[in-house]
């Protein structure tokens, strides 16, 4: 299989959030979208064929969860991550963010405090607040060119604020950090010591660049599954966000029962048939496509880093170990966040995600999506350099 990731596809007029919401948001049509975290690449051909085969039948009734889907998930996790799963340990959800909402309702009470990192994927804080809980954001430390956890700060917060739940992002969005086993062991033992339940968002698990390797939180130590759950999906890996399916891996029977009880109360376990079919096809037949994708993304990442170093040295990039997202530091330009955003949109004609949505540590930063044809990426970078160089 040889996928042409350089091919340009027009996504305008397809109800794409990434492309079609630009006019409504910014009032312009000629902006290059390097923001919303989906890819401008066609999904794997076997997945497309599986969905086409289903639609050709022309009957779209209710679906069960087939054993073949469970088998595909179990095989994928075991083969790639040495992570053993049983069928009963897998629950389905329309998405990881809805699952975070379920977990917050299942494992905390209104008014409880939930620990997250700063910066981190912004729906974490949004879901905590929307469910009447309190956010405690522990700043990540930027050291050795990447983020590291401040365990002392986390422990102080856990003790002082009686924290009940910690939401972990691994690999980390927006910084692209792939946490090491020893780092996960340390934070896991900390949470275990104080009775903090861990929700590990591992949706970027497959998007990791060698020599880095994803380590699922459940595999760090034999007892970590006693106080944690894993959230993941095939949708981020294979550019299938629109099919709406994700998985929660919950080995502890009591955690699983409580999670599923909230799902039943809110009908959060009903999945589109397209989500079931697409997930199974992706895990069964998508690995060759993924191998090619990772090589392409790694090259886009290196290209972006080298471009900025040469043409825009005052803008620095945290080289991602995983994900297809680049964390850019514009703080040396001396602009406010509003000024930076305004100049990127109105002068450079490029849309990035504002760093401030990811937390206070995002001041002066922007998140750039690398998952597009190199021609699109190059055009966007050249526009930025023309304005800020």
Please give a structural write-up:
The structure is a single chain. The model has no long low-confidence stretch (mean pLDDT 97). It is built from 13 helices and 15 strands. Helix content is 41%, strand content 15%. The chain is an alpha/beta fold. The strands form four sheets. The protein has a seven-stranded mixed sheet with strand order 2-10-9-8-7-3-4, sandwiched between helices. The chain has a four-stranded antiparallel sheet with strand order 11-12-15-14, covered by helices on one side. It has a two-stranded parallel sheet with strand order 1-13. β11 (316-318) and β12 form a beta hairpin. It has helices at 17-20, 22-26, 45-57, 67-81, 96-107, 123-130, 151-161, 181-193, 253-266, 273-285, 287-311, 337-348, 374-388; strands at residues 32-33, 90-93, 113-118, 134-139, 141-143, 146-148, 165-169, 197-201, 228-232, 246-249, 316-318, 325-329, 350-351, 353-354, 365-369. The chain starts with 16 loop residues before the first helix and ends with a helix. The radius of gyration is 21 Å and the shape is globular.
């Amino acid at each position: 299989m040889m996928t042409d990731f350089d091919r340009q596809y027009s996504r305008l007029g397809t109800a794409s959030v990434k492309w079609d919401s630009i006019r409504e948001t910014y009032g312009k049509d000629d902006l290059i979208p390097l923001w919303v975290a989906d890819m401008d690449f066609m999904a794997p051909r076997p997945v497309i064929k599986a969905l086409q085969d289903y639609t050709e039948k022309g009957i779209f009734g209710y679906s069960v969860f087939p054993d073949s889907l469970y088998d595909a998930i179990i095989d994928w996790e075991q083969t790639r991550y040495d992570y053993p799963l049983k069928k009963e340990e897998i629950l389905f959800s329309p998405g990881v963010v809805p699952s975070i909402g379920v977990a917050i309702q299942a494992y905390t009470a209104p008014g409880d405090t939930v620990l997250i990192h700063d910066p981190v994927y912004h729906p974490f804080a949004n879901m905590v607040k929307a469910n009447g809980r309190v956010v405690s954001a522990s700043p990540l430390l930027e050291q050795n060119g990447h983020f590291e956890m401040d365990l002392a700060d986390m422990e102080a917060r856990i003790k002082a604020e009686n924290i009940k739940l910690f939401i972990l992002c691994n690999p980390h969005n927006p910084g692209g950090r792939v946490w090491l086993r020893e780092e996960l062991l340390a934070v896991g033992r900390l949470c275990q010591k104080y009775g903090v339940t861990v929700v590990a968002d591992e949706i970027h698990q497959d998007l990791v660049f060698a020599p880095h390797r994803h380590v699922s939180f459940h595999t760090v130590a034999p007892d970590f599954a006693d106080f944690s759950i894993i959230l993941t999906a095939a949708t981020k890996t294979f550019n299938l966000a629109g099919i709406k399916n994700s998985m929660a891996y919950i080995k502890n029977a009591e955690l699983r029962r409580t999670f599923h009880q909230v799902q039943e109360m809110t009908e959060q376990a009903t999945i589109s048939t397209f989500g079931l079919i697409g997930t199974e096809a992706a895990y069964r037949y998508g690995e060759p496509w993924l191998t090619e994708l990772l090589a392409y993304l790694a090259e886009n990442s290196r290209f972006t880093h080298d471009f900025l170093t040469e043409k825009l040295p005052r803008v620095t990039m945290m080289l991602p170990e995983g994900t297809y997202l680049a964390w850019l530091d514009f703080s040396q330009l001396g602009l406010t966040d509003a000024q930076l955003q305004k100049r990127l949109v109105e002068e450079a004609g490029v849309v990035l995600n504002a760093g401030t949505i990811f937390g206070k540590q995002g001041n002066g930063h922007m998140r750039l999506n690398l998952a597009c044809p190199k021609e699109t990426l190059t055009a966007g970078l050249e526009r930025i350099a023309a304005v800020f160089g």
